[in-house]
Amino acid sequence: MIVDLRSDTVTQPTPAMRNAISTARVGDDVYGDDPTVNLLEEKVAKLFGKEAAVFTPSGSLANQLCIRTLVKPGEELICEVNSHIVRAELGAAAAFSGITTRTWTDPYGELSANRAIEIARPNSGPYLVSTTAVAVENTHNFGGGTIHDIKEIEALKKWAEPNRVKLHLDGARIWNSHIASGVPLSEYGKHFETLSVCLSKGLGAPIGSLMISTKERVAEARVWRKRYGGGMRQVGIIAAAGLFAIENNISRLVEDHLRAKQLAKACHEIIPNVIDPTRVSTNIVGLELLGANISAEDFVAQARAEGVWMGALGPTYARLVTHLDIDDSGIEFAVKVLQKLLKQAFVSK
Ligand SMILES: *Cc1c(COP(=O)(O)O)cnc(C)c1O
Q1: What is the rounded CA–CA span in Å between residue 196 and residue 270?
Q2: What does the pLDDT look like over 253-264, one tens digit per residue?
Q3: How much is the average pLDDT of 224-238?
Q4: What is the CATH architecture of 15-248?
Q5: 172 CA distance to ligand 1 centroid (A)?
Q6: 252-345 in CATH: which number?
Q7: For 268, phi and psi rounded to 5 degrees?
C-alpha cells in the first residue's frame, strides 16, 4: 500500500471529473472565446463577491499578477516570513516586478494585525521605501495549515484603508479556511483588493488557479499574463475540471480536516512534542522532530520505505497533507507506520 501525504497537489482526476473535461465546450481563450473559461472566471469572481477573475496555469502566477497590480517597482510588499510569496516563488516579485519585501514572523504563520502594522511604513517620502501592500496567506502552508482570525483581518483592513495600503490574499487554500472557520468566501473578498486561489490543491483539479480583483486590475493582469507567456488557447479543457471541483469538492474538505486531526492526535499520543493537535485545523500536519535521533529527511525516507510518503521541509520538520485521494484505510495505515517510526526516532541512542 502507498499512502501519498506529500501534498494535496498529488490527486488524480476522478472519472466524473475526466468526464467533465472530455465534454467541455472550448474556444480560443486568448480571443476570449472559451465559454468554459469565461464561466469559471465569472463563477469564481462571484463566489468572492468580486468583479472579475482571470484563469492562470499556477498559483504562483496568480499571486504574481495580483501583487504586480498593487505594488510599483521599488515599492514594498510585506508578509509573514514563511509565506509562499517570499519563500516558494523563487524571488519572482523582485525578478519580474521590481518589488522589494520585508517580513514579520509568527511560529504558526498566524496573522496578528499589529505585527504587520508595526513593520509597515506607508508614505515614507523620498528617502525610505514605502509599503504599498500587505500579503496574507490563508491557510498558511508552512505554518501548518493555519487559519486566521477574521477579526485580525478586519483590524488590518481598518488600518490599511486610510493609509492607502492594499491587502492581497494568497488564498491557495482559502477553501480550507472557509470550511474550517465557516467564514463565507465573500467575506474574504470584501477585505482583500486582490486574491489568488488554487483549484489544484484540496479541490482536486489537475491544473489551475485564478487571480481575482476589480475589472480594471484583472484587465491589467490579463495583459501581464500574456506577456509572461501564460495566455492559453482551448483551455476550457482544464477549466472544466476547475468548474467540476468548485461544484463538487468544497464541502468535502471537512473530511480532509478530520483525517489530518486524526493523524496529528495519533502522532501526539506517541511523542507529545512533535505536534500539538489543537493547532491542526485544516489539512496540514507538520511534525517537529527536534530531539529525534534522525533528521527529518531520514525519517521521511524510512516512512517512504514503508509506503507512507511525506515531505521534509526543514532539517527537523516533516509535513503530511490530507486530500481527496486519502481515505480512512489510508489514514489507519499511515498511523501505524508513523507511530512505529516515531517510537524508534525518539529512543535515545
Ligand atoms: C501551492 C501554493 C501556491 C501556488 O503554487 P503553484 O505551485 O504555483 O500553483 C501559492 N501559495 C500557497 C500558500 C501555496 O500553498
Answers
A1: 38
A2: 999 999 999 999
A3: 98
A4: 3-Layer(aba) Sandwich (3.40)
A5: 6
A6: 3.90.1150.10
A7: -60, -35
